[in-house]
Design brief:
Layout (H helix, E strand, L loop, with lengths): L1 E4 L2 E4 L4 H7 L1 H11 L4 E3 L4 E3 L4 E5 L8 E4 L6 E7 L5 E6 L4 H13 L10 E7 L7 H9 L4 E4 L2 E4 L4 E4 L5 E6 L6 H9 L5 E2 L1 E2 L4 E4 L10 H6 L2 H8 L10 H14 L3 H5 L6 E5 L5 E6 L2
Parallel strand pairs: 3-13, 4-6, 5-14
Antiparallel strand pairs: 1-2, 5-8, 6-12, 7-8, 7-9, 10-11, 12-13, 15-16, 16-17, 17-18
Length: 291
């Protein structure tokens, strides 16, 4: 399977290490990214992408200037950018169905294609580390370099989150306070087993949420009765490396799933999507329910 690296077509290597050895600038770019301090990204102009979501837009977007995601441990954040028209896709992959997700990511960029415009596709992968269950390595090989540091004989990711500036193509380490709109609803869909989906319509500059459906979460009352240690050890792929808010996030998501065991009619009246658009202050504002 050929791949574009540094603008040249190359054969996909057997391992990420082989790729880095064959193309030393990749390691230098990764080192520079790891060496950055983490920037706090505010909500203005931001489109936050949760797990099992993707969003794609271009520099022509009048509402969105930043795509970002974080809390990636064994997950990978993928940025795919067309150098000709600047169309950029960011997605948060957890390895559930990579074979189906890769064409979805590629097609999202192709929808912005201008056949008269020259350019190439650039891929940036962030995430994964040397976790005990070797889940990162499996996903890295499916998509492609590890992001690992060791402390007291335990392994942790170096980078948990990134942002990409759609206008300038700059990629930098980032964390986010605002993960909306509808953070709990979107997180519940992923925890309930929903597949990778595209959440943003760049033509209308709107986030489209749902309508979603899921079956009641198995043993939700049992999990809500467990202490933090049990939740961390059983509902995380990397218990030692999770950010401090992980357990709180899982508990609130489980409570949401308990409250809405069948969301179609309660959260999506008339089985219509929830639509959000940036207002004049650069914040998400609900505009109506879609079809």
């Amino acid at each position: 399977m050929p791949l574009l690296v540094e603008g040249r077509r190359v054969r996909l290597p057997q391992s990420a290490g082989d790729l880095v050895r064959a193309h030393p600038p990749l390691e230098e770019r990764a080192r520079l990214l790891r060496g950055q301090s983490v920037q706090q990204v505010g909500p203005q102009g931001l489109l936050y992408v949760q797990q099992r979501e993707l969003a794609v837009t271009s520099p022509k977007d009048g509402s969105i200037s930043i795509l970002g995601s974080d809390d990636a441990t064994t997950c990978h954040i993928v940025v795919l950018r067309h150098t000709g028209n600047g169309a950029t896709c960011l997605t948060h992959c957890d390895g559930t169905d990579t074979k189906a997700e890769v064409p979805l990511i590629m097609n999202s960029i192709k929808s912005f294609s201008d056949h008269a415009q020259c350019g190439r596709l650039e891929v940036h992968l962030v995430g994964g580390f040397n976790d005990d269950r070797q889940l990162s390595q499996k996903l890295t090989h499916q998509l492609l370099k590890l992001n690992d540091r060791e402390e007291n004989e335990n392994h942790f990711p170096i980078i948990y989150g990134i942002a990409v500036n759609i206008k300038t193509a700059e990629i930098y380490r980032a964390s986010f306070q605002d993960r909306g709109p509808e953070e709990q609803l979107r997180a519940a869909r992923a925890l309930a087993g929903g597949p990778m989906i595209s959440i943003y319509d760049a033509e209308t500059e709107q986030i489209r949420i749902g309508p979603y459906s899921w079956t009641p979460f198995p043993h939700v009352d049992f999990w809500l009765q467990q202490d933090d240690k049990q939740i961390l050890e059983n509902l995380s792929t990397s218990p030692l490396a999770e950010p401090p808010h992980f357990v709180e996030h899982i508990r609130s998501t489980l409570m949401f799933l308990k409250k809405y065991p069948s969301p179609t009619n309660t959260l999506f009246p008339g089985n219509k999507a929830l639509l959000y658009k940036k207002n004049e202050d650069g914040l998400w504002e609900k505009i109506s329910s879609g079809n």
